[in-house]
UniProtKB/TrEMBL annotation:
Residues 1-10, 22-33 have a biased composition (Polar residues). Residues 1-35 are annotated as: Disordered. Signal peptide: none annotated. Keywords: Membrane, Transmembrane, Transmembrane helix. The keyword Ion transport does not apply. It comes from Paraoerskovia marina. PANTHER family: CONSERVED TRANSMEMBRANE PROTEIN-RELATED. This is Uncharacterized membrane protein, YccA/Bax inhibitor family. It holds the Pfam family BaxI_1. The keyword Transmembrane helix applies.
Length: 279
């Protein structure tokens, strides 16, 4: 698993990793019939069983377990908040994007490594990222016409496509899939850090190593990695639901999806900006 939001959370781990070893058999229990010892007690127990079978089945909502509806509602709420804050920042104070970037980084790390999800901290992270994306998008819009709407549409389309592929079963998360994604993300991270260092020390200017044709290719690779990460996120959420994780982890799932979607949007924004600057 590559998204630390899911990989550091036991509720979304692979069942084998969650057990931490081989499965042990439960300790044997004595027979209830041997304990009761009377026909009347056995009859009463049978009546209780009949009542249990006649009762309606408990749903995941009744048992306070994680459901897909919980994840959808909380993800939708966080995205709505993100868009509102981003629009307000773009209109009123785009210069606040620096504060949003720093606060978002700190809160993102804190939330990613918390074992128990904090709705308050996740909401604050969303607000900070809204400030960052709003100010950054406003800056891109000044220099690269059409980059922002194109990035928004591309992000939505990629999310929908990744979800459809995952639900159809045509793309499955296998050990080979995970290994390929992990290697790709490590390589992309090293490339990005090298590019930033070269730009900071004046060895390169403009987009640095990300300019021209090479920059377009690198951005497309990054978009592909982000899309694969989305599929990994879907698989993690599926495991959490099937394992009966507590309902509170819907916040963690929504946060994990938000992190990947923000990354995907930023990569599309950079891609369309590079395309615009090469015209």
């Amino acid at each position: 698993m590559t998204n630390p939001v899911f990989s550091n959370n036991e509720a979304f781990r692979d069942p084998v990793q969650r057990r931490g070893g081989t499965k042990t058999s439960p300790a044997p229990t004595s027979s209830p019939y041997g304990q009761m010892g009377t026909a009347g007690a056995v009859g009463a127990d049978a009546a209780s069983l009949d009542a249990m079978y006649a009762a309606p089945s408990a749903t995941t909502a009744d048992t306070k377990r994680l459901t897909y509806d919980d994840v959808i509602i909380k993800t939708g709420g966080l995205l709505a908040l993100l868009v509102v804050v981003a629009a307000a920042t773009w209109t009123l104070a785009p210069q606040l994007y620096i504060i949003g970037a720093i606060a978002g980084l700190v809160l993102g790390l804190v939330n990613a490594f918390k074992r128990e999800p904090s709705p308050l901290l996740i909401t604050l992270y969303t607000v900070a990222q809204g400030m960052f994306l709003g100010g950054l998008s406003a800056s891109y819009a000044q220099f690269y016409e059409g980059a922002v709407p194109s990035a928004i549409v591309a992000t939505i389309a990629t999310f929908a496509g990744a979800l459809l592929l995952f639900k159809s079963g045509k793309v499955r998360v296998t050990p080979k899939f995970t290994k390929f994604l992990l290697i790709g993300m490590v390589g992309y991270l090293l490339f990005s850090l090298t590019n930033v260092v070269l730009l900071m020390f004046g060895a390169l200017d403009g987009w640095g190593l990300r300019g021209g044709t090479m920059g377009i290719v690198i951005s497309l690779v990054a978009v592909g990695l982000a899309a694969m990460s989305l599929i990994m996120d879907f698989d993690s959420i599926k495991r959490g639901v099937e394992a009966g994780a507590p309902a509170k982890f819907a916040w963690a799932a929504a946060f994990g999806l938000l992190v990947t979607l923000i990354w995907l949007y930023l990569e599309f924004l950079r891609l369309f900006a590079i395309l615009g600057s090469s015209d």
